[in-house]
């Protein structure tokens, strides 16, 4: 593994930067705030006792407001377990999307009209406008899983929200059951996860439970051994 | 200089031509397609694409013909469109295939767009016309026909990648990754030997009829192909050979330089960033790809395009992004094919000298005949 300065366009820097993206979504993401990696400007890495450490300068794009800004990050891939990230993006203020989030929260907080949806986006990349915030929320919640699952040999994106169902609001948190499909680029696998998540403007996104679904080898008879 | 002007000119033309679309279509079109502009901004199933290929032939009989060059596992035709002005001489060729991975729907959409563009442009654009005269374009809109049809079947099949051949004895899963099945360092890196996995390289090299079909065609056309382009999604990359980390293409510098030119041309269209490099540098090591095979048999310019996006929508790219994606990809492809064409027909001193001598000899023979 290359040590020292890394080519910012090469995959080691980009995979590390994607982990920073996932981290930022877990910290700042919401139904109206979803971050994606733009470009990596500088990257370096070295072996340390605990694992492999990366230093990165990158641009992050917030997809809903279409605002981009610089971030610096330090990331540790330990021998095993969740990567540890420290990142500062001074321009990512938690309060920017307050109004939209509040409105969305109030709209769905009352459990009289529980929402659900499936296949977001659909095969043609379409989704109903009312489903968009739930798509963002699924992406942000998936970031918790993608962060935890990431290592130097992976690159994750959420491929689709297979379905989601709103559950009764509890302790002022909106609650949802999500089934998401994650795309892991290096293996090219589609990985199914179910999650129980909560969100409120005050508390942000929290993932209470995650459940890896077995790979559907759909040609198999139901009780075959994989 | 001429190459430079040609590329710029075509990009400018692309930007102006796109505003002129919208002429009503003629009869014989599918009912729901109203204008040509609507057609190329939607995804189409295999039946529609097959019908469209027939229509391209019907409407342009002097420049478009088709060729069935193999059968898929499920015994469907693998068809390409051969596009070029008729010639008595044997012509050089550009190869483009789309849809080797079923779920990458934007790729067949691009092949369709590309065909439509060159058929429109060659009548008025001198550069495109020249290329149509000197070259034949061999375009396969959907290579993995079985996989593509399967991905249209229902909600759970949309993200299918591989072919649809059954697994080896003892494995109940289906499909081989066609882009790991070619005879190019087969089975060495970046593959799975688990037949249930997405990069399963097959029981042996060229176990898949789709890979064999391409291999056989390339064999027949061998010395004639100037550029081999294979279209995928997503990630916004232009990949150069080889997929194996320990092997370098002899013309790596040329591949990178032309690739960088393509990336620049792409960015000029809608500002999108694409990255160029080898697989082990910018993506992951992999073996058995069609691009590697093409380079190994001597095709100098061999590129894999990974189109939009970078993960937001991924394989399910919205239809309203088809047009801009195709426009920028066209600019990138056009940079490469212009370079390939000009290199073959302009830059070689030997070629110029041969042309000169042929002209002199022809004039001498002609004048001799007159006497």
UniProtKB/TrEMBL annotation, chain B:
GO CC terms in record: extracellular space
Peptidase M14 domain mapped to chain residues: 42-340
Tagged with keyword Nucleotide-binding: no
Active site: 306 (proton donor/acceptor)
Record has Transmembrane helix as a keyword: no
InterPro entries tied to this protein: CARBOXYPEPT_ZN_1, CARBOXYPEPT_ZN_2, Peptidase_M14
Signal sequence interval, chain numbering: 1-22
Domain of life: Eukaryota
Gene Ontology biological process terms from the UniProt entry: proteolysis
Listed GO MF terms: metallocarboxypeptidase activity; zinc ion binding
PROSITE patterns associated with the record: CARBOXYPEPT_ZN_1, CARBOXYPEPT_ZN_2, PEPTIDASE_M14
Keywords per UniProt: Carboxypeptidase, Hydrolase, Metal-binding, Metalloprotease, Protease, Signal, Zinc
Cofactor requirement: Zn(2+)
Pfam family, one: Peptidase_M14
Protein family according to the UniProt entry: Belongs to the peptidase M14 family.
Full protein name: Peptidase M14 domain-containing protein
